[in-house]
Design a protein that fits this description.
Length: 338
């Protein structure tokens, strides 16, 4: 018989409640972290659940029927998310990306998007709102997401070969449905669309060229992501990482490629374009070129903890402030001191 051990304190979820300063300064719109990196980009996780079991992210041995997903009361409500979004926007955030798990599994996500779409940046512009999805529900939801005020989507897709794709999502989900979702998103104008492909050497690296051929001349920006170690649970091995430099070499064997200058400082993807005008691709070298130095992202977890780094073990418990007796100014002041 296997014995289940329930940890009393799990370091992954360690957090502290941020200090609320007695003297509150008006947000300058120039919030930076202790390394002086400006925060422009906030990722908000709206659910910890996913209907896929990609082995590099939610391996089914860990995320099984006994896995304790968060109860509804632990999740930030739409009102709480919107309140925090306003506070962050006052501090200079201009772009919000909704993530998960799979964000389209959160009920009535369109309502949240409508609420966020009303927020204006410090320079009076509409917020840039995007969403990262596995596209399993996108064909059905693209129009309502667009109508709610979503601007763009990024779709995760690890190959075009149906057998390889079904193996990677590990729930036998067919690639044709994802492609329908991508088409629907393009049709309703959730553009420019990005497609993220996590490359695992020996698993889906043979899909690099077919993916490039498929998305050239389509307006979709295909991005190849180095397979990362996101915790001790997915059996990460360096020999399964295909360095981005080799991805570009493989593309070069069929298509002449030219390097493109970055859009902005802190951009995580290195950009390349097809010399024949077929469009752009990106490579994200999370393993071979860690880009922490000029990263400008913050991440808000499903239960309201703020992380300034994907690998940070300690989050700041903003939910405790939201559910405590604090004003927006006080919470904004606390965020300004993180
Ligand atoms: N390595 C690289 N990217 C990952 N993602 C999740 N886990 C990993 C990993 N181990 C990224 C993928 C996916 C998004 C939801 O998260 O890009 O598209
Ligand atoms: Fe993770 Fe995305 Fe795969 Fe879901 S679809 S398991 S969130 S990588």
């Amino acid at each position: 018989m296997t014995v289940k051990i329930i940890p009393i304190a799990d370091i992954r979820y360690a957090s502290r409640v941020p200090h609320v300063p007695a003297q509150i300064q008006t947000p300058s719109g120039l919030l930076a972290d202790t390394l002086g990196r400006p925060l422009r980009d906030l990722r908000i996780s709206v659910t910890d659940r996913c209907n896929f079991r990609c082995s590099y992210c939610m391996p089914r041995e860990v995320f099984d029927k006994d896995y304790a997903f968060l109860p509804q009361t632990s999740l930030l409500s739409f009102e709480e998310i919107t309140r925090l979004a306003r506070i962050f926007v006052a501090h200079g955030v201009e772009k919000i990306r909704l993530t998960g798990g799979e964000p389209l599994l959160r009920k009535h996500i369109e309502v949240l998007i409508e609420m966020l779409a009303k927020i204006k940046t410090t320079s009076g512009q509409p917020l840039d709102i995007t969403l990262t999805t596995n596209a399993s529900l996108l064909a059905k939801k693209a129009q309502s997401l667009k109508d709610a005020g979503l601007q763009r989507v990024t779709v995760s897709l690890d190959g075009l070969d149906d057998a390889i794709f079904r193996r990677m999502n590990d729930v036998d989900f067919p690639v044709a449905e994802v492609l329908k979702g991508i088409e629907a998103a393009q049709r309703v104008g959730l553009a420019p669309l990005k497609v993220n492909m996590v490359v695992k050497r020996g698993t889906n690296d043979a899909e690099i060229l077919p993916m490039a051929r498929h998305f050239r001349h389509s307006g979709v920006v295909l991005r190849f992501i180095e397979y990362m170690d996101v915790g001790a649970t997915n059996g990460w091995r360096m020999d399964e990482v295909l360095p981005s430099a080799q991805v570009i070499e493989r593309l070069q064997t069929e298509f002449p490629m030219l390097a493109v200058n970055p859009n902005y400082a802190g951009e995580t993807a290195e950009r390349w374009r097809y010399a024949d005008g077929g469009g752009e691709v990106g490579v994200i070298s999370s393993v071979t070129h860690a880009f922490c130095g000029d990263c400008n992202r913050a991440r808000l977890s499903t239960e309201g903890k703020l992380f300034l780094c994907l690998f940070a073990s300690q989050g700041q418990d903003l939910r405790a402030l939201l559910r405590g007796d604090f004003s927006d100014e006080q919470i904004g002041g606390a965020v300004g001191h993180i």
